[in-house]
């Protein structure tokens, strides 16, 4: 049953790519499995998915321990500096870097392990008070600062668009962050590429793809509604 959800979402990803004249290989669908039991993750794994997203370090680490080794884990939630050490080297990508202090800690842990850590800079594109992320105005400066840290590689930007009923309402925000990523790419900063644009969730991933998303993060559409009472 979860497998059917996955296939349905994959079909919609494909259709959105077609509409936008993009190749489906340009877009990675991340299965956002937060709050869901490992049995559910295993079902989606067995259906072929290898990219999973989690938003809490403890839950991510617990699942990582029991799930197959070839999964690419994406840290998509707000990250505290004291938790960085648990995920550096274990996740494929950290989507949620929104301060220099956090980046510095990632850099320290990366050096300890002798690795270079790929990250995205999180931008609060709609400037919602409830959301993390750097403002659009401050993004360029933060990218420049983080780029000086030699054990970090900036791969692009991430945003969480507002919760809306009509996905179209988020199109202007997706456009804005795409523009920002193009502006940053033009600066040709060392250690910085803007190949990844992580945006779009269950309610708006098709619009996000039409506007240039290269990673979409879909939870509810694949795993069903979340029950936060149990977590
Ligand atoms: C929970 C979450 C998602 C997935 O949300 P859905 O609406 O369930 O698809 C995507 N991105 C982030 C950062 C999340 O925390």
From TrEMBL:
Free-text function comment from the UniProt entry: Pyridoxal 5'-phosphate (PLP)-binding protein, which is involved in PLP homeostasis.
InterPro entries for the chain: Ala_racemase_N, PLP-binding_barrel, PyrdxlP_homeostasis
Pfam families (alphabetical): Ala_racemase_N
Span of domain Alanine racemase N-terminal: 24-225
Gene3D superfamilies: Alanine racemase (3.20.20.10)
Cross-referenced SUPFAM superfamilies: PLP-binding barrel
Source taxon at top rank: Bacteria
Protein's recorded name: Pyridoxal phosphate homeostasis protein
Residues that bear N6-(pyridoxal phosphate)lysine: 34
Keywords of this entry: Pyridoxal phosphate
HAMAP family listed in its UniProt record: PLP_homeostasis
Lineage of the species this protein comes from: Bacteria, Bacillati, Bacillota, Clostridia, Lachnospirales
Family: Belongs to the pyridoxal phosphate-binding protein YggS/PROSC family.
């Amino acid at each position: 049953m979860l497998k059917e959800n996955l296939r349905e979402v994959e079909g919609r990803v494909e259709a959105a790519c077609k509409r936008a004249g993009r190749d489906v290989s340009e877009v990675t669908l991340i299965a956002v499995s937060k709050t869901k039991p490992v049995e559910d993750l295993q079902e989606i794994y067995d259906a072929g998915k290898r990219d999973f997203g989690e938003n809490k370090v403890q839950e991510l680490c617990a699942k990582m321990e029991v799930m197959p080794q070839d999964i690419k884990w994406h840290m998509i939630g707000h990250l505290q500096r004291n938790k960085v050490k648990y995920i550096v080297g274990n996740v494929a990508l950290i989507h949620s870097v929104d301060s220099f202090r956090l980046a510095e800690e990632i850099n320290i842990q990366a050096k300890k392990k002798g690795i270079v850590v790929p990250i995205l800079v999180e931008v609060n594109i709609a400037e919602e008070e409830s959301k993390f992320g750097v403002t659009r105005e401050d993004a360029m400066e933060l990218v420049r600062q983080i780029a000086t840290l030699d054990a970090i590689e900036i791969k692009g930007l991430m945003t969480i668009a507002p919760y809306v009923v009509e996905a179209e309402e988020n199109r202007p925000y997706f456009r804005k962050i795409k523009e920002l990523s193009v502006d940053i790419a033009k600066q040709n900063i060392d250690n910085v590429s803007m190949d990844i644009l992580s945006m779009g969730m269950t309610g708006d991933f098709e619009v996000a793809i039409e506007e240039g998303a290269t990673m979409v993060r879909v939870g509810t559409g694949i795993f069903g509604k979340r029950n936060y009472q149990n977590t």
